[in-house]
Amino acid sequence: MRIAMPNQVQRVRQAVASLMACGGLIAGxxxxxxxxxxxxxxxxxxxxxxxxxxxxxxxxxxxPYGITGKTPPSLIKINYKGxxxxxxxRINLRLFQGCPQVEISEGGRLWATWFGSNVQAERAPFHxxxxxxxSTSADGGKTWKEVFVFDPSELLGAGASDPMLWKDPKGNxxxxxxxxxxxxxKDEFSSSxxxxxxxxxxxxxxxxxxxxxxxxxxxxxMKPLIFPDGxxxxxxxxxxxxxxxDKVRIRFLKEDVDGQPIFVSEFPVDNDAGFAEQMPIIRKxxxxxxxxxxxxxxxxxxSFDGGKTWNLGGYYPxxxxxxxxxxxxxxxxxxxxxxxxxxxxxxxxGKKIYCYTDGNEMERELEKHKTPRTRMTxxxxxxxxKTFTHKVLLCDDGQISYPSAxxxxxxxxxxVYDQGRGTIGQHTIFLSKITEEDxxxxxxxxxxxxxxxxxxxxSDQGGGRREGDKI
Length: 471
Fold this sequence. Notes:
The chain is mainly β. It has a domain at 74-221: Neuraminidase. It contains three helices and 28 strands. It has a five-stranded antiparallel sheet, with no helix packed on it. The longest helix has 16 residues, at 6-21. It is globular, with a radius of gyration of 22 Å.
């Protein structure tokens, strides 16, 4: 384990003390708070691998010859005029899908992505027979059209997982596809993240840049944090190490405005963390705050030096999103948006009981859907994430998980999430459109707001899982 230098520890402790004195996050009052640090950044190449791409003449760059982890993937255009209707990615063949992301163009066109399969449920680590769909809507989310697929199966049977859409500081929409190839342990890029940028996001069949190799870690679950100077911070996780104790795997990559790595920072080891899915925000004092996924809810971490070093603070007092993804985002108003599963858990005689608190502050046990992955809820914080006192329920219809959000220029908040990924009649991608006013009111009050429009549901199109299907 790397050890923090004494002067680094002193600087961070001084920052923590200063923040507490001026009324920041009251770390000393939060259960499990610790000053444990993992205060050393590391060379990006030591984590991401050597992302230098060989010359165009190299055999690895000329498919189908000499496939390696650096052979570039491509996007496949679908559902265009003249395409045969029986292509293999059509929705009526799909029986499993989930983990959506959403983004909106400068002109208001919505884009969404998620992964799916015609064969099976998600199966790590190589995700065979799995591809990622890119869909778009030109009418505010009322209707959707699938227009591209990220399917690397032609490369030694590779599979896709955890796609992402995000908007960079210049307003360009980028897509990240995670590719997984079984090289029998002989290639450091068996899992690799590739980023494409849209050239015309107002066009449903936009052209794209050539893909850029980001690294050999999962870097495509949470949207990057954009700093005021245009630099970005990407969240990373080494999913292959989940469940292996005492392994460093939760990291951030800081890039300059040209995409060049500045540093990689690491969390202290936390064996309680699941798939971390951390998503930091910048607080008003310039410090960073993030939740990360753990077994009994969400833990939190803070940084007082731009993300180079991190304090782990233990479990956040409000329990939500138990071992599942939540997202944080600072809104233009300065309020902080949290989208998460509003479910709490308690033990009674060794049995897990899932419950929630209703509008009258009464505790209610979940009756129909006894799972931590339901009651998708949007919250607002007025105090930089210390408390989330406003909320509106988005969906409690079954197993609901993995939110993603995008902001419209008019103040609209677009949120997607999945329902019952492999459940008969479900496997749905939902979209809700809300505003801060709706969350403050605890119900929809704004004209144009809506809940749970269908982005994609294969069973509505003749597909989906059927009785007897084993996935």
